[in-house]
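As a warm-up, study this chain.
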Amino acid sequence: SSALNRLVHLGFNQRRKVLLSSLKKVLSEADGRILTAFWEKEALSPNARAEELAPAVWVKLAGELSCQEGA
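Now compare it with the structure written out below.
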């Protein structure tokens, strides 16, 4: 889906960066809250990097975020 493609692009755009904080900088405030809740629910490390997330986690995360253009 386009939401998944955009999310993965955003996640890998800044390699070797902590994913949670990198995504929060480019997502809307509402999506940032969803992202934080998802991270906690999935028990993901706050220091996780894009390459450390399994493909299934990316798909699940994209489904939970709106990922609208301009967010």
